[in-house]
Amino acid sequence: MLFEIAASNAYMSDNEKFLLSLCAASLPQGSVVVEIGAFLGGSAHIMLLASAGRIVLHSVDIEDKIPNDLRSHRNFTFHLGTGAAVASREALEVDMLFVDGDHSFRGIREDILAFWPQLRDGALVVAHDVLNMQHLGVRIFVETLLGNGNLTKPVHADTMVAARVDKRVALPAASDYVRTARKLSQVFGRPRSWIAEGVAPAVLLSKAYVDMPPPAEDLFLVGKGKRGDFVHRFLGLDYHAPIDSWEARRTDARYYVCSAFFPRIFTHLVWDVRVAPENIFDVTPQVISRWMLQDILNNKAKRLLNAYQVECERELVSGLLNLLSESEVYRMYENGFLCDLFLYLTASFPPQATI
């Protein structure tokens, strides 16, 4: 069994696989487990294997990629939809909730709070990527539940955290999440100064600093990932959605590249699309951080707040900005955490539609 668990196609480390399997193996006969974020069924396979048939597993995802052998398991039920949608139509008494779905503050908040009334007192909550710095929204939410006493006796393996539910404690207020975010801003940051260091050698094709552009019809963002999506909302570019480099057509346009693959994209735009090199800009995390700093200090963070379209995220960002002093904002800028924090609150994947 140990080797089969390690060989599972779940997207997690071996240590995380073993922690998840131990949590499932600890459950008594007839326990109900809910998993949010099934993907290819790797984590579901781990839990069913480790529990030796003692659990009933409800797996939730917005896409159905479950293999047939898992789908036919007598203790497995797949639900197509978001966590909130499934919780609203299924009356369950849940002994363990495993959350590995939407990796944003909004996403994990909606998933856990949707199932919170159905969790038994003392139930297990297991969350993946809590200690992953690229998913700070997940960390802020889970750390707040731990600090508030809603989750107790935590154990962790790599980025995964497991804890027990205490239903006697009232759920956190918005101000509690703000305090957690501020604590993280005071503790974490990259161990270097972007101001002193400048750009890395790999991106010397680009300018060390890129001015924040006003909206214009000839401006295109290249990069459909998290960085491109955030910059699109931050700059208020309503007329052009972010594009992939192969979609670039206009030789006279300006292209702001929001991708770690800037050298490759630069080469494609210059040689294949025939864009002038001076019209291609590298929107690095350093650049975004400088734009954020300017917006916070000179524009009352209007662009930053407009980048968050979900109420709970806007509330968190607004509350945090009201607490931070100017010196704290500068320190976050210098160590890189300003960009990390505000960029990684938002979803890692496109927003989920309720099914």
Automatic annotation (TrEMBL):
Keyword Nucleotidyltransferase: no
Keyword line: Methyltransferase, Transferase
Designated name of the protein: Class I SAM-dependent methyltransferase
InterPro entries to which the protein is assigned, alphabetical: SAM-dependent_MTases_sf (IPR029063)
Keyword Transport in annotation: no
Pfam families: Methyltransf_24 (PF13578)
Top-level taxon of origin: Bacteria
GO BP terms: methylation
MF terms in GO: methyltransferase activity
